Amino acid sequence: MPNDLITRGKVSGTLADFMYHATRGLAIGTEMGKWGRWNINNMNVDMDEHDAVFGFWASYNDEKYGLGLSFRTTSSTTPGLVDFANLMKSIAWEESEMGTRPGTWDVYGGKYYNATGPMQFSQMYINEYLEWTGGKIENSWFKALGLGIEIFMRKLRKSSNNFTDLRWENWEKAVDLYRGEGIDPDYVSRVWDTLQRMRQGKIPKELEEKEKEEKANKLP
């Protein structure tokens, strides 16, 4: 039930608020970069299935934090809501190739060790995740993406001087902060490349290379 999602999902507000963000999220999701269906990690994955969820959380956090983003990017310095959602999808692609189930965790010695959801938030957030889910490990893209994007917003708050400076470079800094202690020096550039390709109507570079390889293998 929507009311349950509002309460347990930590989305403050009324049912009308939920429906507002759901409606706006659907519109945002419709405008996001589309990738189609792919075989990822031995699973047939619709890469666009959850675009409306990315859109919901872009809309919700825009209002929650008073960002005041336009629907589409109209400024060369600040992203709009569609590119906010595109960026979150780019991070999810980089973190998991969006082929992992949300709500599943590696367990070692009876302890939750690491996330395997779409945005790969780490074990340090397990208690917060359980608050979102009412104490259960569950397969919910809505909540897994919601918490991942909430964690990103904390990084953006830090990189943008409490959301007062929302230039592109500060969103890029937030991506680097979201990476955390990872040692991959190309993480940010790959996320940014995927975002730029989405803005141009292209699929991620890795999918493009996969497509070329599949076509080459079909040649007589």
What do you see in this structure?
By secondary structure, the chain is mainly alpha-helical. It has one domain. It is 54% helix and 8% strand. The protein has helices at 2-8, 15-31, 51-64, 81-96, 126-132, 141-159, 168-179, 187-199, 205-218; strands spanning 37-40, 43-46, 105-108, 111-115. Helix 3 packs across helix 6 and helix 4 packs across helix 8.
User: What is the succession of H and E elements?
Assistant: HHEEHHEEHHHHH
Number of separate helices = 9
Strand content: 5-15%
Mean pLDDT: 83
The biggest beta sheet reads:
2 strands, antiparallel
Helical residue percent band: 40-55%
How are the secondary structure elements laid out?
Layout: H1 2-8, H2 15-31, E1 37-40, E2 43-46, H3 51-64, H4 81-96, E3 105-108, E4 111-115, H5 126-132, H6 141-159, H7 168-179, H8 187-199, H9 205-218
Antiparallel strand pairs: 1-2, 3-4
Helix pairs in contact: 2-3, 3-4, 3-6, 4-8, 6-7, 7-8
Quick synopsis:
The protein is mainly α and 220 residues long. It has 9 helices and 4 strands; from the N terminus they run ααββααββααααα. It has one domain.
Question: Can you tag this structure with a few keywords?
Answer:
220 residues; mainly alpha; two-stranded antiparallel ribbon; 9 helices; globular
